[in-house]
Design a protein that fits this description.
This protein is mainly beta. The protein is 0% helix and 54% strand. It has strands at residues 2-10, 15-20, 27-30, 47-55, 58-66. Its main location: cytoplasm.
């Protein structure tokens, strides 16, 4: 799994962006890809791990979990 930091998450819209630690392009994260988080919400600046996939010509984070 890759790791990164949540740059911005919009709980009212159900999506946000993750900045990867490896310096690659930002990934979009959707609420239904967040596991082990109350109400499927992430906090800005939160450290996460995820699997990166491509959906509709953009990189998306799936199986997103908070890193302690």
């Amino acid at each position: 799994m890759a790791t990164g930091t949540v740059r911005t998450y919009y709980p009212g819209h159900g999506y946000g962006y993750i900045k990867p630690d490896d310096g690659g392009p930002e990934l979009t994260v959707y609420y239904d890809s967040i596991v082990d988080a109350p109400e499927h919400v992430l906090a800005d600046g939160q450290r996460v791990e995820y699997d990166a996939t491509v959906q509709e010509f953009r990189e998306v984070a799936e199986h997103v979990r908070a890193v302690e």
